[in-house]
Protein 1
Amino acid sequence: MTGIETLLNGFRKFHEMYFGKDPSLYRDQLRHGQSPRFAVVACSDSRVDPGIVLQTEPGDVFAVRNVAALVPPCEEGGHYHGTSAALEFAVTGLGVDHIIILGHAHCGGVAAMVRKQEGGEVGGRFITAWTDLLRVARERALQADPGLSGDALLRASERQSVRLSLDNLTTFAFVREAMAAGNLSLHGWYLNIFEGDLEVWNPKTETFEQLS
Ligand SMILES: [Zn+2]
């Protein structure tokens, strides 16, 4: 089955699982509002659904998904800032305890940025403007290891993109204030879904450490 019926059947299955087994979860507990402890910034990539990968339940995670799991720097002005607005609400409205940047291997958004920096063609003016925000990630990867190229440079740029988004989070005053008050922690994770691995950024050792 490949058509839209797949999703409608999916809803039937969801209804059976959640309303058949525990009708009170939605009807009573979640009806009156949400109080998730986690905000996750993940890529829109269909293979890296945070709810599946992190095995969460309804009400656990405030999810922000965009191309390349990217947090832009704080920017004033009359533009539309969907990711910044979602994070503002997560921190100031919901009071989440943690923000997790969930980058991933073989990310098309990071690959588009690297391709453009190397003189290649990248289609889509919205995509290009967005992924250009990640240029520094490739530069940092090459600073750390000037010999990188090809797949190794892509993997290193993906990990550096997670770090860049962590840096960009702290350009928002509401993030800095919540951290200073001891109410918010930031986390950078790198998912290699193809190997079933998750790496966790350790700011003390400045390395990504594979979860055992
Ligand atoms: Zn991606």
Note: The pocket of zinc ion is lined by residues 43, 45, 68, 104, 107-109 (CB under 6 Å).
Protein 2
Amino acid sequence: MNKKKNILLSLLLCGLVVSCKKAENRESQSKVSSHIMTKEQKDQLNGEEVLKDFIEGNKRFQNRMATVRDHTKPTRKLITGHFPKAVVISCSDNRVPVDDIFDQGLGNIVVGSVAGNFVDEDLLGSTEFACAVAGAKLIMVMGHQHCGAVKAAIDNVRFGNITATLYRIRPAVNISLDFTGMKNSRNNEFVKYVCENNVRLALSEIRKKSPILKEMEDNGKIKVVGTLYSPADGTLQLVK
Ligand SMILES: [Zn+2]
């Protein structure tokens, strides 16, 4: 009987310890971070390390462990210059909150947003500035699943200035015609395939149309990668 009592007591104590640990974790989660990385800290990083940091940040985002940040006036004062870690070229879709997806604080990411995350001269100029002048070590082109702009390009929508925007995404549709199955915007697998090809085309445009960035990549000064984000579960896959 005493043995049973001891086992019960041990189980209760274990439960208490686990509860305390969980409470501690919740408490540390509720602490607001106002940490800002300095230029010197960012200079120490290379593209591979920034990518690793982003993937770890995305895991925290997926697991609801993202850092609670303070971006109010006192925190903004800590920023002494424009020294990003990375450039993320992303869709302007409001389901794609880039800084949150990678759990990054103020001053870390230059975000280039356009419907369908294609690369044009303006985005290339911004990216060259971020890497060659401001010191960013990673360029990520991030498409996302269920992209409305890609679906509209598949459907060949023509409407106002949207027509010209979709014209930039059409090449991705054209190179996706080897897809086996229904090639329309109602087929999520086809849409995903076009989204991935759209990312591949953007990566190729960066290397083809920006000798500055191509040279930086060839010399190992920056890393260039493609990814596809899933708004439904927050996950990220590499696009090769
Ligand atoms: Zn989109």
Note: The chain is about 50% helix and 15% strand.
